[in-house]
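Request: Have a read of the protein record below and say how the chain folds.
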Amino acid sequence: MRGLMKTARGVGLLELREVDDPKPKRNEVLIEVAAAGICGTDIHIKYDQAFYTPPVILGHEYSGKVIGVGEDVTSFTPGDRVVSPATAYCGKCHQCKTGHMNRCTAKDKRILGTSNANGAFAKYLVVPDYIVHHVPKGVSLEEAALAEPFACVVHSVIDKTPICPGDVVVVQGPGTMGLMATQIAKSMGAGKVIVTGVTADNWRFDIAKKIGADLTIDVQSESDPVGIVNAETDGRGADAVIEASGACVACTQALDFVKVAGHVTLLGVRGQPANIDLDPIIVKELTMSGTWGTLPSSWVTTLRLMSSHKVDVSPLITHRISLREWEKGFELMESQKAIKILFVELE
């Protein structure tokens, strides 16, 4: 089979390579990939700005069908539609034993498309059976390919953000994660969700409104975006702010948007130090949370939400291309002309 591989450390160094078809070990599932999404992490790996152990086939957002199982696997059979998280946790370290499997510290842990495990930018991949989930009926394989980023947002918003029915929530950044956070906040009972972004996001604002945003604000063109939020909240400020843009300036603005005794969730990764005045956290008695990856429970919640159709990820899929067009896909992501790009032909 062919896979899109990061061949060595350094900038670039991506190429389609012929590799042997994988074979499942006794506790593994062999999956034929149906759809695989390009993640921001894949872009960071391209530019040598993230952790990875080359050579490795990239890709960790995927869905597919089981075509083979190891001799000890009993929960899956060929033909099953499945998804999985990226990380196979050890279950033995302190973090795993205290319920933080997403922060597993095992040095040899497997992370699909990143470390010690080839990923989904290929026709086949193998995954340990204990992290695999069945795709519910009524959820397409294309939609299921977005379950991994959606589960990350579920962990950040549902698990960590105190949103009550009727609350006003500001979501900063109408990218994949921000648009997912918009829907999740609505599913939690938020009375009003305000999505903010920059002028270049105007086309994304249309999608935000389609999936449930009540108001969008271009923080570049509006002279007083904080005033707009205050006007929408009787002068109080937002009950919760979800920072999903990864922009340093947005962190400061989040502290302005949020009400006294409100909550700020950091979802977007900045990748660089941020010069932020933290005194508003004290003066306004704020709480703040950050998360990384997913927990097994995040996946249960994610797939239930998708199955219930209380969320709809299909509007976020802006491009479907073949793996042969990977350079086009990466360019679209890097130029911010896409939300979610799926490789759907992986021959």
In short: Residues 178 and 244 are 5 Å apart (CA to CA). The two ends are 7 Å apart (CA to CA). Residues 296-308 form the longest helix (13 residues).
